[in-house]
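$ ./design --mode recover --in tokens.txt
reading tokens...
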């Protein structure tokens, strides 16, 4: 990322889209989405999540786009320029968010790297119990620590050398390939005995259950939507700051949101038939769900070993393209605001982030502790503040900026800004409140029990 004096712009239209898709598509879609959906009861959650993406996610990505393109600055600088000194503190919150998300993101990405290697050594076993046992052995302890270190080192390497372009190009092939392989796995899922039951679990919402649980479903759906779209922490501000003027932001936003959502939804079609046919409860599979479903699939189909190796490799790359954007965010800030050299900033931040992630490799309760706070609280808070900022502090500037590159769309910008000022602000405020209540609940029950045991 260039400093304020020598700003680059994306060379091609696809450069921006690829980078944004590369950041958005990652563990949020493939690892987080299926277990969160299982935890929240299936179809009801999917429905709220999809509504959330459409009504809030798309307008919210545009909120970040207009701030970035207008100022051509990093989030701290952008907020300062448009809103004055006070708003720059929001930029500091974003810094902390990126830092902490990466700390556990790297641990989970390390698991995927480990599974990739298993394809070369032992192969994937179809037996569900064995698969669970394997996940238990890999997800914490020395293995987890080692692969966390390895993944963090890879991320630091890419950011320090500034060779992200290669990765962005890779995304061009990666994302379509992931979709393709997922379709193969969806096909496998469809052949399983309990596929029908799984589809109704995943697709037919039980509105009674929804009405009963909306107070946890809403904040969780909000957190998942922001996490998976890389929203709520200024990443998309940064990316849009490198844009030329003549782009249709709505179109780009639709492509990015569409791809990201497609991948997550497909993963559900793989995971739930496997879990339910294996006789397990999707609500109890937690963070390991994707791992033993995939192990089962790759252990069962012909050529599964090769497919598995390719799949885990691709997910690892997708995770890397997300993690470099998180580290880049931290490093760009340290370079811009504190004048550090790129390699020093990258290595220093990398080591610190690695250390914050270490407890997660000791006990998975720390994954809930960090992830819960980031998603249901900090990301929603960030998105709420940005919506308030764009909707109430700079509405005219924002509308003006959105219109650029679209041509003469008379009411689109008016509808958008109205949504941002009212519906989105209210929904996010409610989601934030419920998210805090939920998180405090977690601290006083599960976490307190863990501390006491
Ligand atoms: N969207 C990424 C994923 O789904 C994770 C993520 C969350 C992220 N916030 C981000 C990535 C900010 C880059 C920047 O895996």
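writing sequence...
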């Amino acid at each position: 990322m260039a400093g304020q004096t020598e700003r680059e712009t994306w060379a091609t239209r696809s450069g921006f889209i690829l980078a944004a898709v590369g950041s958005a598509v990652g563990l949020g879609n493939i690892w987080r989405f299926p277990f969160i959906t299982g935890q929240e009861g299936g179809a009801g959650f999917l429905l709220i999540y999809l509504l959330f993406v459409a009504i809030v996610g798309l307008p919210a990505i545009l909120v970040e786009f207009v701030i970035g393109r207008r100022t051509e600055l990093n989030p701290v600088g952008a907020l300062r320029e448009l809103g004055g000194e006070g708003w720059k503190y929001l930029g500091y919150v974003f810094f902390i968010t990126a830092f902490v998300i990466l700390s556990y993101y790297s641990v989970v990405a390390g698991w995927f790297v480990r599974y990739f290697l298993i394809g070369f050594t032992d192969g994937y076993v179809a037996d569900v119990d064995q698969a669970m046992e394997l996940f238990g052995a890999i997800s914490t302890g020395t293995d987890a620590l080692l692969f966390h270190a390895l993944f963090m080192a890879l991320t630091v390497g890419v950011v320090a050398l500034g060779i992200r372009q290669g990765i962005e190009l890779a995304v061009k092939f990666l994302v379509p390939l992931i979709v393709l392989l997922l379709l193969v796995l969806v096909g496998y899922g469809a052949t399983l005995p309990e596929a029908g039951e799984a589809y109704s679990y995943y697709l037919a919402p039980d509105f009674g259950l929804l009405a009963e649980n909306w107070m946890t479903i809403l904040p969780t759906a909000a957190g998942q939507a922001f996490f998976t779209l890389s929203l709520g922490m200024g990443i998309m501000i940064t990316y849009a700051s490198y844009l030329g003027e003549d782009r249709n932001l709505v179109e780009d936003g639709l492509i990015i949101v569409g791809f990201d959502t497609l991948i997550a939804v497909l993963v559900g079609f793989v995971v739930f038939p496997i879990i339910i046919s294996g006789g397990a409860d999707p609500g109890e599979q937690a963070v390991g769900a994707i791992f033993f479903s995939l192990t089962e699939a790759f252990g069962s189909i012909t050529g599964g070993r090769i497919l598995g190796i390719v799949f885990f490799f691709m997910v690892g790359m997708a995770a890397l393209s997300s993690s470099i954007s998180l580290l880049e965010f931290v490093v760009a800030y340290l370079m811009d605001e504190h004048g550090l050299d790129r390699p020093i900033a990258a290595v220093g931040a990398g080591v610190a982030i690695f250390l914050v992630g270490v407890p997660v490799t000791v006990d998975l309760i720390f994954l809930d502790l960090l992830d819960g706070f980031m998603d249901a609280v900090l990301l929603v808070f960030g998105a709420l503040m940005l919506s308030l900022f764009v909707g109430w502090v700079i509405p005219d500037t924002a509308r003006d900026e959105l219109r650029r590159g679209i041509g003469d769309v008379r009411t689109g910008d008016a509808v958008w800004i109205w949504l941002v000022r009212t519906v989105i602000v209210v929904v996010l405020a409610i989601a934030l409140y419920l998210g805090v209540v939920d998180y405090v609940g977690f601290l006083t029950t599960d976490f307190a029990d863990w501390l006491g045991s």
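exit 0
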